Amino acid sequence: FSSIVISCPSPPASSWNAAYERELRTFQDIGDAGEIWFGEESMVRIIRWLEKQKVPLDSSVLDIGTGNGVLLIELAKCGYTNLTGIDYSPSAIQLSEKVREKEGMTNIKLKVEDFLAPSAELSGFEICIDKGTFDAISLNPDNALGKRKQYVRSLCNVLKPEGFFLITSCNWTKEELWNEFREGFEILEELPTPKFCFGGRIGNSVTALVFQRK
């Protein structure tokens, strides 16, 4: 049943910058960009969906909580040309800039932005992608409910009407995510994700959905 999802831990907000500082040092030392959230298959799943839908390569794409920016690198390698990544951690953006520079991808824009308080210029995107950022916000011990609601408001502000929102989560089921985003969005598709069996019931280790803004 899709109601089973393995919960994945998320460090407190205060530790994110320290984590990316460590990854930045590692990249500078040995050229390792660090962890890919949900693994490489999560990026393949997103790219395959965009290709299946024949999303134009010049569509404006926003990666929310870009981290090391590896997803944007893979999108650029597939020919996408209008890519933006944001993260509230300055160290994450420094890391993603280093990775971008190493890969020679000049068409990727990177910005330090708090998605819960986005700047006015962060708007008009046709595609928004989230791999774990909504999970991290949801686990914030300081007013998580209010932050989730603000996330949805921010998403409505930055995503064009009829734009697509692709989210990958290890803390929320399909039904729970639909409940969170039902104001202003409709579910288009549930993307296939790895399954597991527990107590005779079959579930998903992560949930991947495509929403469309109304």
TrEMBL record:
The keyword Oxidoreductase is annotated on this UniProt entry: no
Highest taxon above the source species: Eukaryota
Any GO BP annotation: methylation
Keyword Ribonucleoprotein: no
InterPro entries, sorted: Efm4/METTL10, Methyltranfer_dom, SAM-dependent_MTases_sf
SUPFAM superfamilies cross-referenced by the UniProt entry: S-adenosyl-L-methionine-dependent methyltransferases
Keywords assigned by UniProt, alphabetized: Cytoplasm, Methyltransferase, Nucleus, S-adenosyl-L-methionine, Transferase
Gene3D superfamilies, per the entry: Vaccinia Virus protein VP39
PANTHER family the record matches: EEF1A LYSINE METHYLTRANSFERASE 2, PROTEIN-LYSINE N-METHYLTRANSFERASE METTL10
Name of the protein described by the UniProt record: EFMT2 methyltransferase
Organism: Corythaeola cristata (Great blue turaco)
